[in-house]
Design goal:
Oligomer: heterodimer
Distance between the termini of chain B: 26 Å
Largest sheet of chain A: 6 strands, mixed
Order of helices and strands of chain A: EEEHEEHEHHHEHEHEEHH
Number of strands of chain A: 10
Shape of chain A: globular
Structural class of chain B: mainly alpha
Radius of gyration of chain A: 18 Å
Number of helices of chain A: 9
Largest interface: A-B, 36 and 25 residues
Number of helices of chain B: 11
Helix content of chain B: over 70%
């Protein structure tokens, strides 16, 4: 079996150009099934653009990506059925209860009302939100809204999950709690994580990709990146790989 | 089926906001009561209850525009729409699920306004059912305008543009006066816009002039179709942006 056979995500020269700016430039990347892949980069590096293309929210200017056998260009509906996303900002319906939020997402991915109710109950239990199931989402703390947002992404049983800065703005305890939940998913779901917190990458990622000015500067484990750059920490390695003018 | 989950959510988001109920139902009803009373002191055919009740319903529909526009814009700005766009829903699913919940709200507006009009002395008969049916294209038009605004504008912009829209509906809809009193260009603009036609169709039901209903409805329906096509095109562009 080749590496390609194990790929959950494989991009081929994927490029996105906006007017006179190239946000993602001929990017080739392979992420294996069950892997937690951290995508790092400075602001404007092209992370969000890449993820939006992989989620079929943006059409590439050129190139393609295949997610578990389906192309984002030729079969976006099949791709969308396999993935889910927890956006950077907390994307919950504020006037719906926690249970209703979960049922909504299950329903729009094809569950019947009975199935949606059952799945929502399971997710509320596994994320420790069952006691507040009947409360409106807008009454939750930031950390609990993040948990709900991730639970909404998982209720559809995605094969690929995109987590866009999932712990942004959370306190230390809430962040550690979310890390624990994300760690528990490793191996069963392919996760693409974007974050600016390098300690989060060290705690969670199997491999790391460093994007800079739309190009993938380096891909590897944390140790491989340290060795490649000759630096002692992931932060120094990251800074080395994203120096201006490189 | 998938769209029905989102439609149900959209309805809940609106009805759970007390300001929506206050603006969409209570305000038109309060104005109906106020101006009907005024009409008893100052003779003005526009304020006669048979004429004014449907006028307040058409006025109330302008709030459906605001509800649908604000809900869509809020979702767009909060990343909630991004989450939905990553799902397998189609653009037709979105249009349906944002528009459909407004129809029961429109029916609620009709029922509540006619009920209060009855208490204020309006003779209620089976014609109320026909009038409600005749008013529905105006409600659909209002929702279409809301979806177009929600797709193209931000919440802040909608606050301003929506207020102007409500004033336009109010003035050019013929609720307060005979539009011919506007004279010249303004009267021509009022007759070219769909709002007064929706109202005139409902008034024709109550006056028994059934033959004039269809031409007015064609006018409103044509506008509604154009607005929905524009909203659908804008929404599809938004999904791909």
């Amino acid at each position: 079996m080749t590496l390609t056979d194990l790929s959950a995500i494989r991009t081929t020269d994927i490029t996105k150009t906006f007017a006179d700016r190239t946000a993602v430039d001929s990017l080739n990347l392979s992420i294996e099934e069950g892997e937690l892949f951290a995508l790092l980069g400075l602001n404007g590096a092209g992370k969000t653009t890449l993820i939006k293309m992989l989620c079929c929210l943006l059409t590439p200017t050129s190139g393609d990506a295949v997610l578990l056998g389906d192309s984002i260009l030729t079969d976006p509906n099949a791709v969308k059925q396999k993935l889910n996303v927890s956006p950077q900002e907390t994307a919950v319906a504020p006037n719906l209860t926690l249970k209703e939020n979960l049922e909504l997402i299950a329903g729009i991915y094809g569950s019947t009302r009975t199935e949606a109710r059952s799945l929502a109950g399971e997710m509320l239990e596994s994320f420790g939100l069952a006691e507040r199931a009947g409360e409106k989402a807008k009454t939750l703390s930031g950390g609990m809204q993040r948990s709900l947002s991730i639970a909404m992404a998982l209720i559809t049983n995605p094969k690929i999950l995109f987590l866009d800065e999932p712990t942004l703005g959370l306190d230390v305890r809430a962040r550690r709690e979310l890390w624990r939940k994300i760690s528990a998913l490793k191996g069963s779901i392919t996760i693409v994580l974007t974050t600016h917190y390098l300690e989060e990458v060290e705690a969670l990622a199997d491999r790391v990709g460093i994007l800079h000015e739309g190009r993938m500067r380096a891909v590897g484990t944390i140790e491989e990146l340290k060795t490649e750059t000759g630096r002692d920490s992931i932060e120094d390695a990251f800074l080395s790989l994203t120096e201006q003018g490189q | 089926m998938r769209a029905s989950f989102l439609a149900s959510r959209n309805l809940k988001e609106i009805v759970r906001d007390p300001i929506s109920i206050l603006l969409g139902l209570a305000l038109p009803i309060a104005m109906l009561a106020l101006f009907t009373q005024l009409g008893r002191q100052v003779p003005n055919a526009a304020f006669k209850i048979d004429n004014f009740a449907p006028a307040m319903i058409v006025f109330g529909f302008a709030f459906l525009t605001m509800f649908s526009a604000m809900l869509l814009a809020k979702d767009k700005e909060s990343s909630f729409l991004l989450r939905l766009f990553a799902s397998p829903l189609s653009s037709a699913d979105y249009m349906t699920s944002y528009a459909a919940p407004m129809i029961p709200l429109a029916l609620m507006q009709c029922v509540a306004t006619f009920a209060i009009a009855f208490l204020l002395g309006m003779h209620i008969s089976a014609s109320v059912l026909l009038a409600t049916a005749v008013l529905l294209p105006s409600a659909i038009l209002a929702v279409g305008v809301g979806l177009l605004m929600g797709t193209l504008l931000t919440q802040n912009q909608i606050s301003g543009v929506g207020s102007i829209y409500i004033v336009i509906v109010s003035i050019f809809g013929g609720a307060w006066m005979d539009l011919n009193l506007l004279g010249g260009v303004l009267a021509s603009i009022a007759h070219a816009l769909p709002f007064s036609h929706g109202l005139e169709a409902a008034r024709a039901v109550f006056s028994g002039d059934l033959s004039s209903i269809i031409p007015h409805l064609i006018w409103v329906t044509a506008y509604a179709m154009v607005v929905f096509v524009l909203a659908a095109v804008a929404f599809r562009r938004r999904m791909r942006a």
